[in-house]
UniProtKB/TrEMBL annotation:
Residue ranges with Pro residues bias: 133-144
GO biological process, one term: regulation of response to oxidative stress
Keywords: Activator, Coiled coil, DNA-binding, Nucleus, Transcription, Transcription regulation
Cited Gene3D superfamilies: Transcription factor, Skn-1-like, DNA-binding domain
UniProt region (Disordered), positions on chain: 127-148, 234-277, 356-384
Biased composition, class Polar residues, residue ranges: 356-380
Source organism of the structure: Acanthochromis polyacanthus (spiny chromis)
Similarity remark: Belongs to the bZIP family. CNC subfamily.
Protein name: Nuclear factor, erythroid 2
Transmembrane segment boundaries: none
GO annotation, cellular component aspect: nucleus; transcription regulator complex
Amino acid sequence: MCSTANYVLPLRRTCEVGPSTKRKTSVQSQASNRIMNVFFFLSIISNHLLSQYKVAATPGRLCGGVSMQTNFPGVRSHGAPQDTEMDVAWQELMAITELQEFEVPSESSYETSQYQTMEPMVPVGEYGISQPHPEPPPPPPPPSACEMSTADNYDGCYSEEVPTCHRLGSNTEAMYGNSESQLSQRMLPISHAQPSLMALREPMNISGTSQGHRRANACLSQGLSRHMLWTTHGQSARARSADDMESDSGLSLGSSPPLASPDNPAGGAPGYQSIDIGMAYSDGEHDSMNEHARRAHIHYSMDYQNQAHSYLHSGAHPSYFSPQPSLCHAQQSSLTLRSVKQQGPAAALSDLYNDSAMSSRGSSQHNMYTKPQGSISTPAPLSRDERRAMALKIPFPMEKIINLPVDDFNELLTQYTLTDTQLALVRDIRRRGKNKVAAQNCRKRKLESIIHLERELNQLQAQREHLAQERLEFQRSLAFIKCRLTDLYAEVFSHLRDEDGQPYSIDEYSLQQTPDGKIYLVPHNAKERAMLKNWE
DNA sequence: TGCGATTGTCATCTT
DNA sequence: AAAAGATGACAATCG
């Protein structure tokens, strides 16, 4: 209340306004404590309004393009904090005309600014909820500019409005804190997901560098998607498990030199083409039909120098090179597709991981992937590279060809005397095997990227909806405050009388405050304004 | 039989 | 310069 008195003082001593005695007005001393209280309450509301708008909007927007600081420079800057608040309140009151024209910023700018600096607004029902007034209503105030359910609750109960407004303030602060935490919570997932997302995005960048891929791989291998490297790990595992490799297709186009026919092991290039294209490699049915016979041929007739056991090591697991027959791919393929269609890419990726884990478990799982039709424990069909390797009597398993480090691989090659054809095939097998793994990784990264983008999209949509809701609440709060200020402004006018005791019309006059703290009743009429200026 | 999904492979580029 | 990885494009395969 002290601040109220300080605030009203200049109002009392700035009585003389206007050139004529009629217009030379004095704000009557009947601008009573009621008015003082009105101003005090106005200050609370205005401060609340300003505290929000100064964050959410620019001063220009707030005052309809009129800067309050510009209009009233240095207004009682020496005063107590309450004084400053009063000044701000008064300035806000003075700007009420502009407030009426206040337009909420456009959506784009609003969203942008809101996203950056927005503080949550007071809920619409804040006033009504926080202003219970058991006291009987005071004498009827001037006609309200807006019919709020709580519009007259404060009238005559200003002493209680203070705590009410304090409650409002505290509520607001609580809301700020809460909402800030909520906002941060809302933001966290995005910012949290960003690195991983970016790490996943980088491989998606067509023009991206392999460094990006490596970074993504590093990130993934460190925890985000540890099993993203399942293939690599699986391959590593396969390096120790000769019966755990997969390859079910692969017609070498051009890069592979002519190979010997499986049916003609001793043959070289001449026998390759007819067998490779005509019989062994172009007719899948034929392949499957002759698979057992060929495997039997492999198991019982092939003699690969001194390393035959390396690919014939497992009679119980009749896998020469490939541990993962095509049926495994078929199952995985259909499973992934089904998951994508029914549960989305995440489930598909999960299925991929599961299947990958299964595929890398070793030979114990191997029989699960053999074709159910046909004889019991039907061995898996050989891949074409496997068949070629058999045809050329490559003396070491494909898993070694593919997974050994280059030095070990070269050392392995030096241990055997291989023809040029064999060497070329081995290198082709190695290249294709590595590329197959790379393609699998690449596709998994793509799928993961899609999943993350989907999540990000959902989060952004949720944020957009939330911001729209906050904007709506903001607009409602703003309309409510404007209404309240208009009412209070009108009430202030209702207590002002000229020397004849006639009330001033709010349509003809407005209140203005000078830098020195004086408050004037200023006529809207330009002529009277000029007279007033001359009189001054 | 046509279609979509999956997978392997090739070519090419980057690291 | 070679090796390896990444990826777009294409074809084979499958349901």
